[in-house]
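Project standup — Tuesday

K.O.: blocked on the structure for the chain from last sprint. Re-posting the sequence here as requested.
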Amino acid sequence: MEWIKKGLIYKPQKKHLWMQTHAQVPVADKVDEERIRIYFGTRDNEKRTLTTYIEVEADNPQNILYEHNKPILPLGDVGCFDDSGVMPSCIVNHKGIKYFYYLGWNAGLTARYRVADGLGISEDNGKTFKKYSRGPIMDRNIIDPISTSIQSIIIENNIWRAWYMSYTEWKIINGVSEPFTILNMLNPMTVYTGQLKTLFVLILRTKTKVEYLFQAL
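H.V.: unblocked you, prediction finished:
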């Protein structure tokens, strides 16, 4: 398959205080044969990230059909994992429900930021979303001691498989702290057939790999 570069599709026009810069980490969701919804992270003047979306013509993405005028989810309460950012990661459509996985982050002191994973749920085809919880569904732990960020989730035979980045360390490069990551896979050992709401409930550690159990509630 040959990729064709289409060039610039969209950039913020500073119409809203919460959308001053950035249209980053785009996540595409097919609405129908003629329309694609693109979720993206945008920033205000305090560099906080919120997620909104545009809808474009499927065969001509430069043709913007709709521009949403508000964030799909709010920032978290002060001190919560997503009080500085709600950035898109991936979206899963399953049994009429949209599961919107996002990267919640807050500003750091020794490191520039810390990332954990949140979940928003829509039961009206993406018109509105509601946070599943105030806290993250996945966060740093004994195996991933710095930060985690989910990158992709695929359902195969009722098994939810997730690929995520584990932050291994921060390094100072040209006077700026930068994260180094590795890509891991969440490997469920047991098949659950219900709706996935809690991403993992148990971590099993061996000498060579980490395995997570999925929990369907």
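K.O.: great, moving the ticket to review. The chain has two domains: 10-71, 76-216. The longest strand covers residues 159-173.
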